[in-house]
């Protein structure tokens, strides 16, 4: 089959549950590559999640540093809510009076999409209810509150949800996105932070209110959840998630692939963990790991290859060398899987 789709069109086929012409590779870009999708916050939210940190719309301070590769995190031990029963006195919804949505949509599209044939305009709706709540209280107090003061937490989540619905509605109306992004990490490397039952009872119905709006516009839904979150995936598929990333290898990806097929696209599936011999590694062994990943996950569509060396030191020459082998092998394989 000779390819005739643009990279973006091919990528969006996967997001829509269709079989692509080839396996999309590295959606977040690489050396000399435009990303296959933007993973962007709309301008109204500010840049608090960027490399400089800042204050989010609710008043949570985010900090960053080279030890976490300049990923912004809520400032430790500086939580704005210490007693969830007092949330009405502390948590105040942002006021966006006079905000120019049309101008913001134009500016953000130009900012995040340099090549419209390559990059899909995927924007966040800020329905990140779990992480936002944890940002208010921190993990220790926040998780305790979920279990001990469930009714209060739910009332706070409903208050927060109005903000998420406001952002989502305007993003859909003015941005006309090609994908909607929900970034809400709810799991550690080993297991979810809360039980699947509580997740389904407390968070899923509120996510659904936002995602129903997105589905009505036939916009694919991207769900970012790191770690071993496979226990939570069935609920998210039920309410319309189309693409899951980063789909880390702690999860039983083969079982998930077999269960959902093209209904849930697996975006990720590969990690090269440095052996004790690092940086002395065998190129053929690295390439074979890529082949094995394609063999397990690429058949019949529903797969986007993404991954590399598990290191935050992206500029290390050895990381770049091995990463080059990974990308090269993935690109070779991507063109032959569906022939």
UniProtKB/TrEMBL annotation:
Domain Uroporphyrinogen decarboxylase (URO-D): 138-308
Listed InterPro entries: Methanogen_methyltrans, UROD/MetE-like_sf, Uroporphyrinogen_deCOase
GO molecular function: uroporphyrinogen decarboxylase activity
GO biological process: porphyrin-containing compound biosynthetic process
Superkingdom of the organism of origin: Bacteria
Protein name per Swiss-Prot or TrEMBL: Veratrol--corrinoid protein metyltransferase
Organism for this UniProt entry: Alkalibacter rhizosphaerae
């Amino acid at each position: 089959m000779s390819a005739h789709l643009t990279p973006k069109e091919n990528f969006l086929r996967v997001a829509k549950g269709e079989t692509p012409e080839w396996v999309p590779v590295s959606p977040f870009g690489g050396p000399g590559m435009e990303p296959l999708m933007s993973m962007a916050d709309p301008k109204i939210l500010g840049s608090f999640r960027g490399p400089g940190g800042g204050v989010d719309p609710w008043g949570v301070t985010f900090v960053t540093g080279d030890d976490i590769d300049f990923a912004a995190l809520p400032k430790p031990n500086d939580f704005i809510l210490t007693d969830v029963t007092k949330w009405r006195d502390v948590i105040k919804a942002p006021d966006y009076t006079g905000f120019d949505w049309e101008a913001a949509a134009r500016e953000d599209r130009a900012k995040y999409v340099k090549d419209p044939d390559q990059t899909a305009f995927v924007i966040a709706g800020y329905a990140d209810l779990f992480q936002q709540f944890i940002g208010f209280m921190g993990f220790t107090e926040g998780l305790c509150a979920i279990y001990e003061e469930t009714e209060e937490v739910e009332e706070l989540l409903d208050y927060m949800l109005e903000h998420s619905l406001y952002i989502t509605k305007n993003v859909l109306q003015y941005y006309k996105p090609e994908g909607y992004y929900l970034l809400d990490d709810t799991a550690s490397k080993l297991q979810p932070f809360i039980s699947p039952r509580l997740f389904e009872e407390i968070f899923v119905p509120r996510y659904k209110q936002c995602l129903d709006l997105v589905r009505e516009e036939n916009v694919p839904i991207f769900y970012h959840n790191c770690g071993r979150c496979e226990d939570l995936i069935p609920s998210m598929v039920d309410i319309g998630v189309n693409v899951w990333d980063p789909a880390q290898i702690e999860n039983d990806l083969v079982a998930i692939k077999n269960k959902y097929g093209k209904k849930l696209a697996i975006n990720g599936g590969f990690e090269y963990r440095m052996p004790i011999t690092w940086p002395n590694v065998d190129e053929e062994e690295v390439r074979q790991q890529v082949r094995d990943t394609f063999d397990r996950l690429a058949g019949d569509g529903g797969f986007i290859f993404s991954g590399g060396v598990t290191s935050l030191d992206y500029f290390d020459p050895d990381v770049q060398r091995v990463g080059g082998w990974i990308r090269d092998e993935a690109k070779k394989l991507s063109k032959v899987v569906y022939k």
